[in-house]
Known about the structure:
- It is a single chain.
- This protein has eleven helices and 20 strands.
- By secondary structure, it is α/β, with parallel strands linked by helices.
- Among the domains are: 6-149 and 337-386, FAD/NAD(P)-binding domain (3-Layer(bba) Sandwich), CATH 3.50.50.60; 153-217 and 269-328, FAD/NAD(P)-binding domain (3-Layer(bba) Sandwich).
- Strand 4 (117-120) and strand 5 (124-127) form a beta hairpin.
- Helix 9 crosses helix 11 (438-463).
- Residues 13-19, 37-40, 45-46, 54, 56-58, 63, 118-119, 145-146, 148, 150, 152, 191-192, 333-334, 356, 358 line the site of flavin-adenine dinucleotide.
Amino acid sequence: MTMSPIETDYLVIGAGAIGMAFVDTLLTDTDARIVMADRHHRPGGHWNEAYPFVRLHQPAAYYGVNSRELGQGTKDTVGLNAGMYGLSSGAELLAYFDQVMQQRFLPSGRVRFMPMSQVVGAYEVESLVTGARQPVKVRKKVVDGTHSRMRVPATTPPRYAVAPGVSCVPVNDLARIARPQAGYVVVGAGKTGMDACLWLLEQGVDPDHIRWIMPRDSWVLDRANVQSGDDFFMNTWGAMTRQLESVVAADDVQDLMLRLEAAGEWMRIDPRVMPTVYHGAILSQAELAQLRRIHGIVRLGHVKAIDADQIHLEQGSIALDPGTLVVDCSAAGIPSVEAVPVWSGDRITPQWLRSFGTVFSAALIAHVEATVDDDAEKNALCTPIVPPTLATDWLRMLDVSMKNGQRWSRHPGLQQWLAESRLNSLFHPAARIRPDETEKVALMQRYRQAIKPAVARLPELIATLA
Ligand SMILES: Cc1cc2nc3c(=O)[nH]c(=O)nc-3n(C[C@H](O)[C@H](O)[C@H](O)COP(=O)(O)OP(=O)(O)OC[C@H]3O[C@@H](n4cnc5c(N)ncnc54)[C@H](O)[C@@H]3O)c2cc1C
């Protein structure tokens, strides 16, 4: 059944974190009317499918949408994040996005939210419940909030064959087991695999009863270095400064990685193995110490198939003991989807403009959309980043991030937005330094001095990558 058309200024496809952050800023900065459609029954995107014990990796203080605080701004006093600012749970994030929709977007009278609906063709919104199709006439732009192509285990079947009778569950089912298992095999070593291992250890599972299939080792970031409070200034800005100084001083890319590790910026789970992957997983030192208790790490590549008593991997097979539960954590998370121009024809495609700056970038893009006239000028301010997979991709990400940052610093309109945006609050402590805080002043001087040589050195290092 086709219904009468809806007219709107913006059609936003997807009410995940990106769609929500974009619309929130567009509402603040314009008087536009917006239609948002999402296949889920409520906003929050993939957080609707997250495992029960999921938490943000980063402090809540600078996640979510710009106009509304997330989290209480307090530090955890117990657990593996103790001493650092709180991390929202999946349930908190869903409640938060729901409140943003119910208490801000809908009461504005300018947003129409169409849940359980998908955007098809150019452009119709199709109800997944009734099948009814409603054409949408878009006066300004279509915003593609689906570009990240997020993959989570609950909705991504494993890419390996599992024989009947093998106990293999997505990570979501781990918190639903009803009896002790003889052992656990965690497949995947991204952030989800790390979370699964930490959860098992927290439940008291003997680390020797965990086998961890780690196709590739990853570099991880120390969470103490991504705290937005003034009290973490020396950590956060110290790490940013040492990062740039490492780039400048590095003889080559391998040397750079070791320098980043020596500077406390990057960490690895096993100091004997050189990681090749960098997905931006964030751990506290206490979490890292826990993960190091697991000695049954299997480094034989990706799993190809699991049969009744063996796991077959790319480079060999291992025994699967009876009564073992296999926990699938192998979904890609944030895949390295190719970048496209943010503004192209009638479309806006929000992407990262800063390393791991998912919601920050979506909000900034909405602000640029609202305040800059010409699409060429908008694109010139917003070069998109391809999310990294390999450790060497980090160099390209930093290169684009820094160049974007330099362009924004020369744009007076953006400067004010950056200074006020809660999604940029990681960077705000620098503006609050008092002249008598000599240690902080000296660190900022070092940071500023390192920018220009680092921007010059990055392309040289990138050119050495095959
Ligand atoms: C365990 C975990 C922890 C994370 N922690 C952090 C963190 O601490 N900080 C951080 O910045 N990021 C974190 N991330 C990354 C996170 O993915 C992003 O922050 C963000 O949630 C991605 O949102 P999105 O809107 O791009 O994608 P999604 O959440 O996937 O939303 C896209 C939406 O589009 C909808 N959709 C798709 N196609 C259509 C269509 N045709 N019509 C209508 N709707 C459609 C989908 O239903 C979906 O709801 C984490 C990710 C995971 C898995």
